[in-house]
Amino acid sequence: MPWWSWKKKKADRPAFSITPRDDESAASKVDLGALAPPLADYLAGACVLQQALASKLSVLSGGAWGSEDADDLGLASGRAMDRYRRLRTMLEDYVEDVAAALSGPRDRLAAHLDRLESTRWYEGVGTAYVVTGFTRDFWHRLATGFDPEVTSVLQDILKDEGDEDLMAGVLERFLAVDGRYSSRLSLWCRRLVGDTMLICRDALSEAAMAHVDAEVRLEPVLTDVVALHTRRLDRLGLTA
Known about the structure:
The protein has a single domain, classed as Ferritin, core subunit, four-helix bundle (Ferritin, Up-down Bundle), CATH 1.20.1260.10. The chain is an all-alpha fold. It has helices spanning about 40-60, 65-90, 100-115, 120-140, 150-160, 165-175, 180-200, 205-210, 215-235. Helix 2 (about 65-90) runs antiparallel to helix 6, helix 3 packs antiparallel against helix 7 and helix 4 (about 120-140) packs parallel to helix 7 (about 180-200). The protein starts with about 40 loop residues before the first helix and ends in a 6-residue tail after the last helix. It contains 9 helices and no strands. Helix content is about 65%, strand content about 0%.
């Protein structure tokens, strides 16, 4: 494990702890602190993900068929980039070389994103919509594995700033033009789930995932996240 994954330059790395949750889901009983990676690894993974989403949304904005769609996707891209900047600022406190810290997570993410590419513009928007929401929900829960003060900051950075509505609006307008695309888009979004889960798994502690009961501990968390994903597609009249 690289030294930057556990050493903070300016202060000791916060100890893991669990922040109480109000809901009574099975995931609330999972010790996410045992699944969370060192904070530097968490931040590096979150950084490259937000940067990739910002880039993807920017490209989609440039290829949009109408000015409203281009504007909404451009705004969503900017909000992903805002998250990247804030996460990167935090990461600077935990590593000596930010670029080096981002290198490994970037390579791993690229391998997953290559499998999520489509030549159809609307499927690209579906990818951005699904990956943004699914990973946000997962990283939001994983953040509870850190010191409560750090958890609060991370969850504030990751919260939805209206970008979900912006992307959903683009897809709703597209489907309103020709509902025949609905089944194709629904199939595409279902296809995304497996690879998006792999993106989430890359955010976990390698040591924790080596334990024999790791999958059992992870399952209720993913169940929660998939349920939210299903609601996200239901909103568009798509089946998960």
